Amino acid sequence: MNIHEYQAKQVLAKYGVPVLKGGVAYTPEEAEQVARGLDGPVFVVKSQIHAGGRGKGRFKEPAAGDKGGVRLTKSVDDVRENAAQMLGNTLVTHQSGPEGKQVKRIYVEDGCDIQRELYLSMLIDRATSRVIIMASTEGGMDIEEVAAKTPEKIFTVAIDPVTGIQPFHCRNVAFSLGLKGDQVKSCTRLLMALYRAFTETDAAMLEINPLVVTGAGGVLPLDCKMNFDSNALYRHPDISEMRDEDEENPAELEATKHDLNYIKLDGAIGCMVNGAGLAMATMDIIKLYGAEPANFLDVGGGATKERVTTAFKIILSDPNVEGILVNIFGGIMRCDVIAEGVVAAAKEVSLNVPLVVRLEGTNVDLGKKIMADSGLPIIAADNLADAAQKVVEAVKEAQ
Ligand code: ADP
Ligand code: MG
């Protein structure tokens, strides 16, 4: 789960990370109020959307001018005016997709006297199963670009979970960033606090771009992105509350409510599978036969009629879906029960795209009979390859 920049700064502040004074606003008037409570004289008005590159982004409504989604302002009136231009407007950035994202809240923050912009992130490295810190002097830039063009400018250190973060890790990072004297101490305190925040909140990713060295010599995060392990959210009700449903894919949100693991993808073949491994294999084999999956969907072990129906509805809510492949192994669940669920669900949602079903496992013959007798144009398949081929062909024929 992702959260907004201002929320991430709230989380970090709880762990003693220094952040600038600021407040969230939903209306231009609130923005002005927030600004009045800040130190000034420069205030920064920042669009809060779950996409990076806001500063260089552009609004769709020309009324907002061609300034980006992060603006320096010099008076509270200016704050209110810029907030009015941003709120309700759609911001397009290189991460938002061409359709952009509507700005519904903004963050008003004290302006910062920036001396240097650096890059810092923490993430979980699957290869070493450790938290790694990535740092670069190339702050404020797209880090993917830095990694591609000048990988030598990215410094990485892995933290052994047994010892946790140690002062020498921090000093190494600070030196790699070219920090000196008190800045090294400041950076060490910051990294210690960030590591605690990262591990104690079960974060999956923390990106600070830019991390800045201020005129006063301090080191602090100016931007912050945080992402949390969804499976650990039950341990953090305060973070769960930060979820902004407006920022999430509606189909994925609906799936979460029904305990279905659904991830939207860009292809045309909707997949409904039980078990994550089988779901991955199904997506692979669809690709092998020349098509692309429209989604990942694991209906889980208890594929009841209700779950199957909900899953169908979610798959069909994606306008790109041109055919559906149901691939279910009846282990705990019997195939006849699944077949009844598929038939009932297909009738209820008045299915209008080809449906290929591959069933295997307990009572498979009975399951196939139920589908054949249903009067529905369900295409039965015998194995994975057969199923993938049939759905790809059916979609081609339907075109
Ligand atoms: P994004 O990465 O989405 O464009 P940032 O928060 O990184 O948004 O802001 C973009 C740029 O705006 C920063 O690199 C920095 O130069 C400037 N900026 C952001 N916040 C402040 C601030 N409080 N004071 C001064 N400049 C800021
Ligand atoms: Mg940034």
From TrEMBL:
Protein name as annotated: Succinate--CoA ligase [ADP-forming] subunit beta
GO molecular function: ATP binding; magnesium ion binding; malate-CoA ligase activity; succinate-CoA ligase (ADP-forming) activity
PANTHER family: SUCCINATE--COA LIGASE [GDP-FORMING] SUBUNIT BETA, MITOCHONDRIAL, SUCCINYL-COA SYNTHETASE BETA CHAIN
Enzyme type, top EC level: ligase
Stated family: Belongs to the succinate/malate CoA ligase beta subunit family.
Necessary cofactors: Mg(2+)
Binding site for ATP: 46, 53-55, 109, 112, 117
UniProt organism field: Roseospira visakhapatnamensis
Record's cofactor remark: Binds 1 Mg(2+) ion per subunit.
Domain of life of the source: Bacteria
EC number: 6.2.1.5
Catalytic reaction annotation: GTP + succinate + CoA = succinyl-CoA + GDP + phosphate; succinate + ATP + CoA = succinyl-CoA + ADP + phosphate; (S)-malate + ATP + CoA = (S)-malyl-CoA + ADP + phosphate
Binding residue positions for Mg(2+): 209, 223
Biological processes, Gene Ontology terms: succinyl-CoA metabolic process; tricarboxylic acid cycle
UniProt KW Nucleotide-binding keyword: yes
Matches recorded under Gene3D superfamilies: ATP-grasp fold, A domain, ATP-grasp fold, B domain, Succinyl-CoA synthetase domains
InterPro entries hit by this protein: ATP-grasp, ATP-grasp_succ-CoA_synth-type, ATP_grasp_subdomain_1, Succ-CoA_synthase_bsu_CS, SUCC_ACL_C, Succ_CoA_ligase-like_bsu, Succinyl-CoA_synth-like
Binding annotation for substrate: 274, 331-333
Domain called ATP-grasp: residue spans: 9-55
Alphabetical keyword list: ATP-binding, Ligase, Magnesium, Metal-binding, Nucleotide-binding, Tricarboxylic acid cycle
Keyword ATP-binding assigned: yes
One GO cellular component term noted in the UniProt record for this chain: cytosol
Function of the molecule: Succinyl-CoA synthetase functions in the citric acid cycle (TCA), coupling the hydrolysis of succinyl-CoA to the synthesis of either ATP or GTP and thus represents the only step of substrate-level phosphorylation in the TCA. The beta subunit provides nucleotide specificity of the enzyme and binds the substrate succinate, while the binding sites for coenzyme A and phosphate are found in the alpha subunit.
The protein's annotated pathway: One-carbon metabolism; formaldehyde assimilation via serine pathway; Carbohydrate metabolism; tricarboxylic acid cycle; succinate from succinyl-CoA (ligase route): step 1/1
Name of the encoding gene: sucC
Description of how the protein assembles with itself and partners: Heterotetramer of two alpha and two beta subunits.
